[in-house]
Design brief:
single chain; 405 residues; alpha/beta; Nucleotidyltransferase, domain 5; eight-stranded mixed beta sheet; 20% strand
Length: 405
Amino acid sequence: MKILVLNAGSSSQKTCLYRIESVLPEHPSVPLWEGRIQLDGDQAEIRAKDSRGATFEDSIKVQQGTSSVAQLLDNLWSQKAQAVAAPSAVDVVAHRIVNGGSEFKDPALITPEVKTAIARMASLAPLHNSVELDGIEFIEKRFGSVPQVAVFDTGFHSSLPEPAYVYPGPYEWLARGIRRYGFHGINHQYCAERAAQLLSGELGSLKIVTCHLGNGCSLAAVHAGQSVDTTMGFTPLEGLMMGTRSGSLDPGILTYLMRQGFTGAQLDELLNRKSGLLAISGISGDMREIVNAMKEGHPRAKLAFEIFVHRLRSCIGAMIATLGGIDALVFTAGIGENSPEVRAEACAKFGFLGVELDSVKNAQPSQDRDISQSDSAVRVFVVRAQEDWAMAKAAWKLLSTKVGG
């Protein structure tokens, strides 16, 4: 079965093609083909590579939107890639859907009703759901009747207990769907399962805090394989400081700004696209650029880094408190995998819990590696984000069940 995965993020569009035969591999497979659109202002940079890691198209600039996705997918059947002969060779397309609300917990075949629900939830994930819906409609036009599967980022967090997902506002909010949903669930679930493998055991009663740190950031407290708390909430705006998103703020700031004349649309733009690392540093929302500027003595870059770490530590502590302890701390996604500075500072205040990093391993970790000292009471892992593989598995399982049934 050839499975095409579309993974639309807040700053990128990732696309992979996997082949899964009759038996599901224990470990992630190397994609037959993969490509990435990195959004940059009013344009998008495209680069694609095959399973050998060879780049077969130079980076080019195109207008954002469906046209860029189309050019990326055209590589699938190009002579350079030779991944598939035509769209008809793809058996199923899996889409990451950020917000499935309370309606969707498990992966689902996409129907008109599912599309309507995704569109309805777009107001709660303004940087994601509408883009994902565009991707679904594009596949319908280009690939015809190929089955499409929605894999929901909110699904893993459907196990949150009531005290964790009900907000302390008017109780009537709950009936209106105003509650904590949580996001990044596909990767939080994968990383918790991978950490258990690295610990050579089952999830069982393990207490794991997973730190998904990228342009968007969230933590999850995972107990025995179930999400019991997370930092993102009703929308992906709550919680940690992020690349361009503010994370949690005093709500009184917003009512104050509204009295000053700010509209809802202006606040939405301000909090989602003009806050976070970008706003504080005045340089970039990219942690790599923040760290480089900080090392060169840039005071606002230093402040942005320190705010990020302060909030990260606070939220890790909250997750540990919810769990009543911790067996493993996992760092994943762009910042989590690639910033030894963030990992070191995040762990520095948890020595009282027995968290001890190995500075050499932390400086240059290989993928899916324990970077803690041998006598650390808490294992600290760097785990490569594998959302695309997790989505491919979910689509394979769903279609296999449908065919088998």
